[in-house]
Write the structure tokens for this entry.
Amino acid sequence: MVRDTSFASLTAREFEVLRLLSSGATNAQMARNLELCEGTIRNVVARLTVKLGVADRTQAALLGFRSGLA
């Protein structure tokens, strides 16, 4: 269950990447799963960190994990 209201600003793609990131997926795994290139995944992760107000992908993953996305 998602409880964090900061997720409301995420696009559907960003939310899906956050869900996969929270599950421990690498950029390569996310790219294969979502049929995107790794560069696109890196860009989405970078946007996530800004929108969520966290310093890096690890903090974003922890936020998603603690919110029940994993």
